[in-house]
Amino acid sequence: MVFSSLIFIFVFLPFVLLIHSLLFLHIQNKQDNDFLTTLLNLFLLLSSMVFYAWGEPRLVILLILCAYINFHAALLIEKRNYSKLFFAISVTINLGLLACFKYAMLFISPGMITLLNKALPQSINLKDTFTIALPLGISFYIFQAISYQFDVYRKKVTASQKFIDFACYLTMFPQLIAGPIVRYSQIVKELKIRTLNISIFTDGASRFTFGLAKKVLIADTLGKVADAAFSVPHGELTAYGAWIGIICYTFQIYYDFSGYSDMAIGIGNMLGFRFPENFNYPYIADSIQNFWQRWHLSLSGWFRDYLYIPLGGSRRGKIRTYSNLFIVFLLCGFWHGASWTFMAWGAYYGFFLVLERIFSVSVNKIPRIIRHFYVLVVVIFGWVLFRADSFTHALFYVKSMLGSFQGSLQMNKIWIPWYGNDVTIALIFAVIFSYPFLPAIQKISLRMENTMNSLVFRAFEFLKYTFMILILLFCCMPLFGSTYNAFIYFRF
Amino acid sequence: MIKINQKTKASEKSVWKNGTFVQRSCFMKYIYGLTFLVILVLPFSLLLTSGDKIIKRDIDEKRILASRPDFFNTSFNEFSQKYENYLNDKLPFRTVFINNYLWIWETKLSSFVRKNIKGKEDHYFPNKKNSPTVMNYLGLQTISLRKLYEFRTIIAGRQAFWQSYGANYLFLLLPDKTTLYPEFLPGWAQDKYSVIDQLNSMLEDTQINYLNINEVLKENKKLKKPFFNKYFDIDHWNANALDVVYRVLSKKFENNVNFHQVDINKAYTLESIEKSTSISKEIVPWMNLNVSNLRVLKHNYMGVKSPSWASCDIVVNDKLKDGTLLFSTDSYFKYTHQNNFKNAKGKIFPLAHNVHKLIYVHYKEKLSVFKEIAHVEKPSIIIEAVAERTKLNITNRQSPRLLIAGEKILNDSQLIIVPELFVSSSKKKNCLLTPSDNTLKIISKTNDPILHLPTQRTNKKGRFVVMVKMSSTVDTIAVLFYAQGNEKFIGNRLVSQKIKKGLNYLHLPVYAQPDQDIRLRFDPGRKKAIYTIFSMPDTKEMFEEKS
What we know:
The complex is a heterodimer of chains A (about 500) and B (about 550). By secondary structure, chain A is mainly alpha-helical. Helices cover about 70% and strands about 0% of the residues of chain A. Chain A has 22 helices and no strands. The longest helix of chain B has 24 residues, at about 25-50. The relative contact order of chain B is 0.09. In chain B, helix 5 crosses helix 13 (about 400-410). In chain B, a hairpin with a 2-residue loop joins strand 4 (about 125-130) and strand 5. Chain B has helices spanning about 25-50, 75-90, 95-110, 135, 145-165, 175-180, 195-205, 215-220, 240-250, 265, 330-335, 365-375, 400-410, 540-545, and strands at about 15, 20-25, 115-120, 125-130, 130, 170-175, 210, 270-275, 280-290, 295, 315, 325-330, 355-360, 380-385, 415, 430, 430-435, 440-445, 450-455, 465-470, 475-485, 495-500, 500-510, 515-525, 530-535. Chain B contains 14 helices and 25 strands. A 7-stranded mixed beta sheet of chain B has the order 7-6-14-12-13-11-10. In chain B, strands 15, 17, 18, 20, 23 and 25 form a 6-stranded mixed beta sheet that branches. In chain B, strands 16-19-24-21-22 form a 5-stranded antiparallel beta sheet, with no helix packed on it. Classes of the chains: A mainly alpha (about 500), B alpha+beta (about 550). Chains A and B meet through helix 1, helix 2, helix 10, helix 19 and helix 20 of A and strand 1, helix 1, helix 2, helix 3 and strand 4 of B.
C-alpha cells in the first residue's frame, strides 16, 4: 500500500486513526494501563501487517522473522555473555537478508541459473526468468534493525522486553516502506508513554496534507516530464529537452521523497509519535558536505554513526578519512538500489566530498552564490546517474545535456506534458518551496498570533485550516483522476 | 502508561497579554481535526452503507466499472488487487472529483491528463489510450515497414476476395482530426509524423482501388464548414464530413448500374443541434436521414451481439429493385452525428437510398461472415472504410489466404512454391522428394527436413515473400531461412508459421537489405512427417476450399 492511494487515504488511514484515537481516549485515564498500552501497540502492529501485506502477503513472513530474530538477538547481546558474538551474528543475519533479497539478482546471470539448475534436483528447476522478489521497504527496516543492535550493543538503549513493542517499532507503517529510518532510542519512550492531543493531531494532519500535496501536486506532475525525457531513445534528445527533464527530475525526487517523509511524520504525530526530520532544504546547500547534512538525514546519520565512525571517522589521518568517506558513500549509493549505477552515484558523491576535504580552505573562500551553483550542478549531474537505467543511458543523457544530439520526433514525448500549465505551476512552487520560505512565514505568523486579539486570531485560524482542507481536497482530485480510464467505445 | 502532557492539555495556546498569560481556546483545531477525519472517513462509510447507489455525475467513461470481489472465493493477493480496483471505481464522490480534476487540469491548465489535449481556438484533440491521435501525429507510435506491408497486403487481399465474387471494391482511409486540422493543434505540436501519408503511400501505384478521403476533405475545407467539432465527439468527424463523403461516393459510383443516383436533398438533411460535453456545450452539425421507403431486415449474420458501432445491420430500400452494397466500416459511419434508425442497431448512412439493400458489417468481422454474405446476399459493391486512428486494426486478424490473394494482386517480389519448382536432384537434406499428380511429397527422414530454394531478389524496400499451399501429416512449424552474400542460415534470419495437420496456406515475408539477392532455405516442418506441396489455386478456389 502506498500513502498516495485511495485505499490508504480513504480506508486504511481513517480506520487506524479512528480506532487508535478511540483506544487512546479509552485508556488515557486508566490506572496501571501497561497492558492497555501494549494492546494499543498490538493494534498498530496488526495494522502495519495489513498495510504491508496488502498486495504481497507472502513477504510479511520475512518482516515478522526479521523482527523476531532482532528482538531475541538484542536480548542475548544485552546479557553480556558473548555479546560481541551475538552482535556480529545478528548484524550478519540482517545484512544477509538484505544481500539475499535486494542484491542477489545483481550477481545472478542466466549462465549462473543454468549452473544452479545442473546442481539442484530437477524438482526445483529454476526458470530462465528466475527473480527474487524485492520485499517492500527492506532497506529501511533492516537498517532500523541494525541500528537497534548497535545501540543495544553500545548500551545506548536497553533491549526491548516486549516483542509487541519492538515489532511495533520495527514494522510501524508510517515509516516502514520509505523512511525516515527511525532509531529505537528515538521512539522508545513513546512506545510506553504517548502524548496525543488535538494540537498534536492537527499538526500531524497538516503535515500529512502538506506531504501529500508535495507528492501529488508537485512530484507527480514534474515526474511526467522527467519520465518522458528519460524515455527518449539514446541520441535523439536535445540539450533543451535534456535539461528540462533533469531539472524536473531534480525537483521530483526531492518532493517525492520529502513529501513521503512529511506524510510519515504527520501520521506519526497523529498516532502520538515524533519521528525525526528527514530533509532540511537540501537545495540551498553551499557544499556537497552541507547537501548531505540536509538530504535524507536519517540515512546519512545512520551511515555516520554505524559505519563512518566505526571505520575510524576522521580520527586516523587524512588518507584514512578520505577512504572512509569514499567507502561510506559508495555503500550509501549501493543502499539506494541493486544497480551499479547507484554505486557509481555514491562514488560520485564520495569523490566530491573527498575533494572538498582536500581543498576545504580554498573552497571556503569562494563566494557563497558560486558554491551554491556548484552544488546544484554536481547534484543535477548526479541525478542523471541516479535516474538512468544504465551507464550507457547516463552517458547519452549527459551528452544530450551538453548538446551533442539533434532532436527527433521522439522529443514530442517531453513536449506533451511540458506545455501543460500544471507543470509550469508545479515548477514555480517547487523552486519556491525548496527555499526555506515556509518556516519564515510560520515564524511571522506565530509572532502575529501572539499580538492578535481573539477575534482576529480565530479568523486567522479559520483561514489557515480552511486552506489546509482545500489543499487536501485538491490533492484528492489527481488521486481520483488517476482512476479515470475512459474508453471511446463501450466493451471495445 | 499513557498520559496527557500538561503543557499541551486540551491543546490550549497561551499568549502573553496585558502582563499575564491568556489561554486561547482551540475550537478551530477541533473543527479542523474533525473535518479532516470526516473527509477521510465519509466516502468509505457511504460505500459501506449505501453500496453503489450513490448518485454519480456522468464522466463519459464508457466501461464496466469493477465490482466487489468475493473475499471467500479469492486469494488474498488477488482480493487486495481486485478490492482496490473496486474502490478506485466505486468510491463515493469519485465522479465529482474526476469532473473537477478534468475541468481544472484539462480545461483551465491545458494539461495532458490522458483524455484530450487542448489546442488553439478552444479545439480539443483526442489522445486516449485507444484513440491516441496526437501521439500518432507527433510520431510517438511509429509504424514498422513490416506493418505497413501487412496493411497493404490485407487491403489488396480483401479486394481480391470480393473481386473473386464479382463485386466492385473501394477502400477508404478516414483522417483523424489532427491530420485534417493541424492548424488548431497547440503551438508546440509542429513536428509532424503522418500516419495517413504513410498508409496512403502504400496504396498508391498499386492495383488497390481506394479513395483518398483526406485529400477530399482538405479540398473541401475551403467551404468553411468544419469537419470535426471543437469538443463534442472529437474522436469522430461530424455530419459535414459525412455529407461531403456521401456526395463523393455518389459521384464515384455514378456509372455503376447497381448504384442508383438520388436527389441528395431528399435523402437526408443537415441541421445544427446543441450537444453537451464535459467541457462545454457546442452547436454541431447533425444528419437526419429520410427513412421513408427504408426498413431494417432481420438477419442471422455475426455481429448482432456487438455494440451499435460495430453491429451488422441490413437496410432494405423498397423503392429500388436491385443493387446490394456491403458497407464494411467502423464507427465513423455507424455511430456518430446521425439520428438513430428505428430497429437498426446503429445509425444508417444515406447510401441506403442508392441501393436496394445496404449491409453494414464491421471490418473486423471474421472472413467466414464475409463469405456467408458473399454467397447469400451477393453484394455488387463493397465499400470498406478504416479510420486513421485505428491504424492497423484491420490487419489484426490475418488470414494467410487473404494475404496470398493480396500478394497476387500486388505482384511484387514474390515466389510461389509449386511442385514444378523441384526435381529429384534439387538441393535438399534429410528428406525425399516424390512428385505425383501436380503435387510434390516431401518425406522427412528426420525432424529437420530442408529444401533449398532458388536465389531471389528483394524489392526496393528489402522485402520478399514466399507463399505455398501445403499439407502436413502433423502439427508443426514451417520455417523460411534467408541469407545474403556469404551469410549462413541462422536463427535470427528466419520467418516461421505454425501449421496444422491437414491443408495449410503459408505466407512468409522476408525483410532484408533492399535490391539484394537472397538465398532461401525452406524447412516445411520440424517433425518427421509427410509434407505435400500443391499448385497454388486461383483466388476464388482458394477461398472456397475447406481447410
